[in-house]
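ARCHIVE RECORD
Type: protein–small molecule complex
Small molecule: arginine
Source of inputs: curated submission
Record status: active
Notes field left blank by submitter.
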Amino acid sequence: MNEKLLVAEFLMKLLPDMTKEDIAAMLEYPADKKMGDLALPCFKLSKILRKAPPMIAQDLCSGLEGMGETKDVFEKIESVNGYLNFFISKGNLVKDLENIEKDENYGANEDGKGKTIVIDYSSPNIAKPFHIGHLRSTVIGQSIKNIHRFSGYECIGVNHLGDWGTQFGKLIVAYKKWGSRERIEEGGIDALTEIYVKFHNEAENDPALNDEARAAFTAMEAGDEENLALWRWFVEISIKEFKKTYSLIGADFESWNGESFYFDKTDRVISELREKDLLSVDDGAEIVRLDEYDMPPCLILKSDGSTIYATRDIAAAIYRKENYNFDKCIYVTSAGQSLHFAQFFKVIGMMGYEWAKDMVHVPFGTVSIEGAKLATRTGNVVLLEDIFRIATQKTLEIINQKNPDLENKEEVASAVGVGAVVFHDLSNNRIKDVNFMWDEVLNFDGNTGPYVQYTYARCCSVLEKSPMTLEIRPESGYVLTEEAESAIIKTLKLFPEKVRQARLDLEPSLIARYLLDVCASFNRFYHDCPVLKCEDENVRRTRLAIVKATSTVLKNGLTLIGLKTPKNI
Ligand code: ARG
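STRUCTURE (tokenized, with ligand):
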């Protein structure tokens, strides 16, 4: 059972007006372990109980000591300066160790049973490079999806590709003027970007090009087969390249319905908005005014009658509700798009859909590399492909120094190199801007992905070398002899709660940072407590169980944040 609930269950008997959950929410994990495993700051109760915190702590303490059962669960309960500190007993930790060690799925829960989420993430734009900015949406989104799945939710991941809009008119005109089939087949997205950039440069002197582009897109919307065939080809080339990246980082999608999928579904949105009298005309365009909500209007139809990003997003949301009947629809994009989401969520609410409240935008900060901001215009676009190639290469060099005889070196170098980049991305609160420094990302001893993967591999190697991994448990039960043993079990016990909190906050960094705590705690244990060389059989088996339990938590945790778990590094 969750530690907080365990303590709350006892306290409940002394605080009859409060629920177990309310009490659990007041409990804190003291930063200093000398203050116990859990603490109740009693000032939180002084208003309700009309007593000074030290007195409350004192009264609760004697009350708890009066209950016989507390003896089995707590080693000690003390009242210090208005805090009530709980020290969980070893007997209880042993039970926890048994539970974790035998459960491969440790950390999972069923909170989402019978519920569905749709999560829109990654969603790159066709014919534009997949750069490190897109990596964030992909890894944060994939991890949020994994966490929900681990919590029993049915999850529909949608790659809402940017595959429709006037930019395709430009690309078609550019291709017809300056492109060649061979060059594009050979160069892929790079070659497409090249002609797209050329279009922009040329259009500065020759504005008629823009009219041509508009006409080309209008023709596409009207079903012009020649243009549509080119567009389909651009989409295919781009997806092929995106999939290479996805396979490296283990991203997968249940749906690839991009913006074009909603082309024939926007008419309905427009008539509905019109019927509900929500549209106003503004300079020839049609908009939904949002002054009342302190937001600029949401543009629905441009003056030339074409739909835009927001129109397709409204159509997509309605489609998702009708087809998946989601309990929550989550969108993962950079914070730069926050207004767009706030606007169209509001429009959906104004249309009378009560489920507008179930739409959530999950924003994240920007990325810079070695301190330099990424911008397409200044040419500082760093391609993900290059980053992963460099990370893998650098990891391979480290492996060649540290462990030159390792089998499948290339495969491991890719798992660790790519994992380092992903972990770095996920290890800070998502809203914070990320600065990508190579030395930091790949440091095997720092707070990095390689460090966590390496600790997992260390656990695996201990278990592999042990002759009795299958039957770890001694007849007489586990025995805890060292402080470092208790400490790591206490850390492992937090995993289910971290999974739950990461889901509620839509914050994978909680898991990434927790895994660093597990590694620190495990490495202290590993340093203080010999495992395979331990003479006492019961102690040795207990320590093996700790290694096994740690490996489960690291494996499940790494998988949740999208890292691979090689057994040998
Ligand atoms: N393609 C967009 C971009 O790269 C992201 C799409 C996010 N999803 C959505 N439903 N709007 O900026």
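CURATOR ANNOTATION: The chain has a mean pLDDT of 93.
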